[in-house]
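Design a sequence for this backbone.
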């Protein structure tokens, strides 16, 4: 059977805590940011992309800051700042920064044309990578859930987050595969619901002497299952 790297990524990641697709995207973002900072800071293509996209989105910009390499961050963002300043100087010098003449100037903000020129010409390159890999993982699970290894790994996991479950349902064309995915996911969520009920029951003073087990973290895990792993969707939700 010929399969993509995404197949093995999912097999290896399902046993870990959390939504496998979310966890893989977090890993991929970290790897890409490290690659940019430590290998491509002075690459002309990377710098051109940063110019066009006005840097990265807010979420990925601050993830980059947390990773360090102050000189690399300064180098890339000086390029972006230079692009922004160049646009402002060019537009104001040739008079195109102000849109509208006569009565039109009262209809909209006078410098709206300049604001439009400062909009990114390309999307955040990290978000673009995330969208591509996300689509790949969704497709792989939908196509290969009939595979014994994939099915067993999925069944033994904490399941998908709600967003990635929705995406897989939207893109899985094989009805049998879709039914299998729904059945496994529902079974996983039923176990989580049981743990939540146990957690809530043991918060009652009447049962305070009962030892709390794995259900102790169920309230945190249900947030991750419904909202997605932290940081994954922030950039796209803005």
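Sequence:
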């Amino acid at each position: 059977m010929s399969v993509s790297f995404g197949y093995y990524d999912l097999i290896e990641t399902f046993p870990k805590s959390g939504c496998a697709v979310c966890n893989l995207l977090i890993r991929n973002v970290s790897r890409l940011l490290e690659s940019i900072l430590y290998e491509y800071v002075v690459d002309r293509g990377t710098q051109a992309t940063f110019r066009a996209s006005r840097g990265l989105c807010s979420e990925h910009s601050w993830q980059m800051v947390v990773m360090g390499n102050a000189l690399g961050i300064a180098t890339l963002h000086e390029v972006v700042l230079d692009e922004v300043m160049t646009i402002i100087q060019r537009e104001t010098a040739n008079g195109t920064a102000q849109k509208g003449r006569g009565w039109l100037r009262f209809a909209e903000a006078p410098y709206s044309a300049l604001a439009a020129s400062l909009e990114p010409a390309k999307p955040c390159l990290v978000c673009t990578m995330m969208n591509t890999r996300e689509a790949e993982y969704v497709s792989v699970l939908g196509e290969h859930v009939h595979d014994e290894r994939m099915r067993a790994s999925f069944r033994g996991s904490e399941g998908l987050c709600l967003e990635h479950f929705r995406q897989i349902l939207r893109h899985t064309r094989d009805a049998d595969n879709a039914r299998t995915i729904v059945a496994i996911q529902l079974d996983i969520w039923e176990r989580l619901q049981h743990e939540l009920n146990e957690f809530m029951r043991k918060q009652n003073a009447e049962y305070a002497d009962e030892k709390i087990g794995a259900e102790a973290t169920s309230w945190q895990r249900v947030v991750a299952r419904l909202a997605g792993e932290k940081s994954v969707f922030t950039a796209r939700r803005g």
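The chain has one domain: 5-237.
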